[in-house]
Fold this sequence. Notes:
The complex is a heterodimer of chains A (106) and B (114).
Chain A: E1 4-7, E2 10-14, E3 19-25, E4 31-37, E5 43-49, E6 52-56, E7 59-64, E8 69-74, E9 83-90, E10 94-96, E11 100-105
Parallel strand pairs in A: 2-11
Antiparallel strand pairs in A: 1-3, 3-8, 4-5, 4-9, 6-7, 7-8, 9-10, 9-11
Chain B: E1 5-7, E2 10-13, E3 19-24, E4 31-37, E5 43-50, E6 53-56, E7 65-68, E8 75-79, E9 88-95, E10 104-105, E11 109-113
Parallel strand pairs in B: 2-11
Antiparallel strand pairs in B: 1-3, 3-8, 4-5, 4-9, 5-6, 7-8, 9-10, 9-11
Amino acid sequence: KNEVEQSPQNLTAQEGEFITINCSYSVGISALHWLQQHPGGGIVSLFMLSSGKKKHGRLIATINIQEKHSSLHITASHPRDSAVYICAVSNNDMRFGAGTRLTVKP
Amino acid sequence: NAGVMQNPRHLVRRRGQEARLRCSPMKGHSHVYWYRQLPEEGLKFMVYLQKENIIDESGMPKERFSAEFPKEGPSILRIQQVVRGDSAAYFCASSPDGPTGELFFGEGSRLTVL
């Protein structure tokens, strides 16, 4: 069993839909990161969380430390949100989830 | 404030040659991480360095791979005697605060071994 599990693996949505991607982990962590990787391969850090909830524009990330679970939400999804979303947990090293491939159709 | 700079962006090497990948962190960042992404696979941690020190190299292959982050200049990931299986995208990220800090990624260096 992977130490960082993401679900779903693939997600197709219609423009405007509310999207949730889940991440569960089984190790102690210093922080949890949500990353976005676009088709061209570049990686952008969306959120770094150690507790609670953060919001940037249409993106919201939450973490429950006791349950070792985090969620990434996208409100009013748009085709430009199509990308791979990756959950990662960090100590001195970093463990990555396998990623969720999101496709938003117009 | 320039972002994390990686070069070269693309590197082609023949089997047995050496590959050197460079990463200049964001200004003021003393924490550097290297990750590898094999074709069609996920990201894997390689090494975490903080100026002149290797903090965690648990993801580095035991042979042929080394990393440094000298007092002056960029961090270097060095792969000796490359093999076809080393073909991958190598990403660098920097942070101002280490494991509890936000990460800033470079564009990656794509190594192709012929």
